[in-house]
Each structure stands twice: as C-alpha cells, then as structure tokens.
Amino acid sequence: MTTSGAELLDLKDGDTEKFPEIDDLASRLKFSPSTGHIWLDDRRMILMHTPSIGALRRELIETLGLEEARALLTRTGYASGASDAELAAKVRADMKVFDAFSVGPQLHALEGIVKVECQAFDVDVERGKFYAEYLWFDSFEDEVHINEFGIGADPVCWMQIGYATGYSTVFMGRPILFREVECRSMGHQRCLIIGRPAEEWEDAEEDLKYFRAHAFANRSPKTRKDGDAESVPATPQLAEQHPSRWDMVGASAGFNVACHMLERVAGTDATVLFLGESGVGKEMFARNLHRISKRKDEPFIAVNCAAIPENLVEAELFGVEKGAFTGATASKPGRFERAEGGTLFLDEVGTLAPSAQGKLLRALQEGEVERVGDTRVRSVDVRVVAATNVDLKNAVKAGEFREDLFFRLNVFPIHILPLRERKADIPLLLNHFLNKFRRLHGQAVTGFSERAIAALLNYHWPGNIRELENMVERGVILAASEGVIDICHLFTSGERIDSSILAISKTGSLDRSSETSGLEAVLGAEGVAGSSGNVIDDILQSDLRFDELEDRLLNAAVDKADGNLSEAARLLGITRPQLAYRLKKRQG
Ligand SMILES: [Zn+2]
C-alpha cells in the first residue's frame, strides 16, 4: 500500500482493470495431505463439495427461515473476508492501493468462490473514501441456490457479499457495505456488486441487519422507550446519531456467540458469570444484560470487588449498622439492598475474602443479607451477575475460592474472547472510538493511515478493548487536526508491534510499514533505514560478515529484551528454541 493513498480508476463501459499476478497469493496456498491440512498462509482451510454446502444452505433456510439463514451465511462470509484482509496487509504492504485491495477479489477466485472483475475503484484509505464496483461471474452461491430454488426476485450471494463487506471493512479500518444490485439468481447474466462506506447508503439498515447477531446491540434505552421496534443500526458511524454508553460493537463470530448467549439468558433470573481477560468489556456486557432483562427499570449496581479494601467489602456489599465499628456513625444499606429489584454486578469476584464469600453464598441461596453489626436478616430480590479474569476453578483448587460459591456463580458462564482472537471487530471499534473522541475533543482527524491500520491489526492487544480505546483517544489528540492518525500517534508507550508487518519488498529493501516493529526496535531506526533507506545495501557495503551480523543481531535482541530469551526471540521473529540453538551454536 502506498502512502499516497488516493486511487481513482475511471473505467469506461466494458473496460476492466487487470488484477496483479496472483503468484504471491497462490504460493501461500499449501496442501499437506500427510498431516491432513490445507493452509492459506497460516490459516487452516478445507475443501468442501458445493452440493453439500447447497444442502446445508437449504436446511438452514428451511429450519431458520430465509432471513435468519441469510443473516447467518452473511456473517460467515464476513468472518472469511475479515481474515483475508489481514493477509492483504501482510502480502502486498508495499504495493499501490488497487493492487493491495485486489488480494480480496483474487483470493475469492483462488478459493473457488467466484471469478471477479473490477468495474470501478475510487479509494482513499486515509480520507475514508471508498467506491467500488465489481462483476461476479459464475458465483458458487448462485449455482447452489439456483439448483435448489431456481430463479427468484432477490440477490442470493449472501456469503460472498458478507465476504466483500468484511474484507473491505477490515482493509479500510471503517465500515464499508457492499450490496449486490444484480444477481444471476435474479436472471441477470452475472452479478454486480457496489461498495460504499456504510453511512453513505441511504437505506443501509436493510443490509446491515444481516451482519448483526442481535437487534439489541446499539439500541439505546431511549429508542426502546419510544416504542421504536426497529433497532438502531449496528455500524458505529450510524450509531453516532444515537450516542449512548450502551454501544456493543462487533461483527466477529466470537462476539456474536457471546451476544446470542446474553440474549438467551437475559429473560431469566439465572446468575451469569462473565469470563475473560481484563479490558474485554465484561461490564458492558453485564449492563446490556440488565438493559434487556425484565429488571431493566430497576437499578443496576456495579461493584469492583478488587477496588474495595478487604476490611470494608462486607460493609459495602451487605451494609452496616450504626456503631458496628469505629467510624460507622450511621446505618447504611449495602449494594445488595440498593440493587433491590434490579441487577448487582460483581466484577473481579475472585478477589473476595473468605468471609465475604460465605455471605455472598447465603445471599444467592437464601436471598437474604445481614448488615455488619446487625442481627436482623433482610430479604433481597437481586439478580447477581459476576465477572472474573482469573480461572476460578484453579482458585477453588488452591483453596482461595469456595467451591459451593463457584458452582452457584457458574450457572451460566459466558466467555468473552480477547481482542486478538476477534480481529474482525478491530475496524468497527476503531471507527467507533474515532467518532467518539473526535466529538469529545473537537478534532477533525480524518482517519487512520494504511500502515497504522496494518499495525493495529497485527498488534496483540494485551489490554484488549480498553487499550484500543485509550490508544485511539491518544491518536485523536496527537494527530494534526484534519490529518490522519499514524503509527507514531498510536504506539507511544513502548508497545511492541509484530515484526511480520515489516515486509521485504521486491528490491530487497525493508518496507517501513511499521516504524516501531520488533526488528526495527532491535536494530534501531537508523540501523534499518540507514541513510539510503535500504538496510540490505548498507550491510552489503559494510565489511560485516554474515556470522558477525547474526552475532550482533542476537546480542542486540537479548540486550533489548533485558536477557529475556522469549522476548528476544519474539523481537527477532523466531521461536525461543531457535534462538537458544543459535546462541548455543555461537558459544560452541
Ligand atoms: Zn449473485
């Protein structure tokens, strides 16, 4: 991807832009019959028979109904497209926008889905400008659909439109929506698809509903009270008109599964336990659970158990009677009593002290609480929702957490995946927080640079959504107004970016798609770029021998990682055993 960004192809009728050679993609498709694998780069693929997909499709339509089946297949396609977009950032980082973007349509052909031709392409990643038209010839989905159902009135290439939408959304770092305006299943010669930023389609909601597992996502309480049965659009840009703190942003399979489970359990009074690393948004899920439950008009009380001093936890949760201890000058109800009729959210429940665990168990089992210093038992009607980022089973084994309480809390566990395992959500979240902080800070930043998007997709996100939110806020503040957010505005606290996005171009020069990648961090910016900007040339012109170069590289990495070999290996893009082997070989 070039840094210039803008690209306009003005094609006359019947003209098509040629895609680049496909060798760089085809060479990443590997068949390994001895191990039972097919790999596309590092993703496992399978070959399936189109008639069996056709049968599956038919069963889905007949059991779920047309709309639900369409939505499910669209989302499946979205996930594939999002995954392939990560490959584009890796393989064609140094090519112009049209060629880099063509990874999607070319992979679609390579994967046997459909033959694609480009009709129009007017794209500027940094300005968020996107207009594209493609023709689909001999689409597999039309073939199986026509076989089963014949010609009809609506477009049916659902997985494929999901793919195009997921691919371009991740590629652009903002929601792009493709629509199939002509389809072979409607009697046309071939299918025609058009892609635009989601907010530029006037009636985007018609299509967007298929990308959303659940209508409640992004539906603000206000629109619910207004009796608005139609849900508010899922795309953050459209949701902007309905700002609320309830926003649930995501399109990945993992996110959708969590939403399905949330909706399933919301109407009951079951205790729910959210599991996941810190920063994944457990409290947001808990708030949404309350919002769509029958207790929604009663209080939602959130408590972070880890944030309350141990000696005050019981008083906080269960209340205190005047004179119970020094400082208890007045009687005070606890969070349980304050949540009466509603939902009590206990975050980091694994940190509760043993005595508090016992009282919590009683509250769950009997629906009764006792204030500290009181003998009176008060009954409460509270739904308890808890969250933890530690493995409670291990805590039980270690004797730190009551087993009976664990079983009581673990009635309906919901896992929320870390961000690195649902990368398809990253562009939606970026866009959501970009809009939020643009408004908050009155900044007119236009978006993210291409290399920033590539770096964000490759980052491993130890702090999850909270980290992403902080990073975007920092980016909005640091970037020039009306400029774009680049890598230097995002990664300012010494975060490590995966060295795999530092690609070597055809000329052998290291493409500076990431200014702070691991390898570069080892060599230092000067070492990589050199005066000529070409590290290979610089090394060849020096007197360094290869083993000396390796020596220096290994030493630098180990130093940089303060002697931590795993970290040093990561910086070098090799495994720890590989690094250990090289170090040993050098000593011997
Ligand atoms: Zn079609």
What would your notes on this structure say?
The protein is of the alpha/beta class and 588 residues long. It has 4 domains: 7-211, H-NOX domain (Alpha-Beta Complex); 253-416, P-loop containing nucleotide triphosphate hydrolases (Rossmann fold); 434-490, Helicase, Ruva Protein, domain 3 (Orthogonal Bundle), CATH 1.10.8.60; 499-587, no CATH class. It has 26 helices and 19 strands. Strands 1-5-6-8-7 form a 5-stranded antiparallel sheet, with helices on one face. A 5-stranded parallel sheet has the order 10-13-16-9-17. Strands 2-3-4 form a 3-stranded antiparallel sheet, with no helix packed on it. Helix 18 packs across helix 20. It is globular. The relative contact order is 0.08. The site of zinc ion has 11 residues, from loops. Zinc ion binds next to loops.
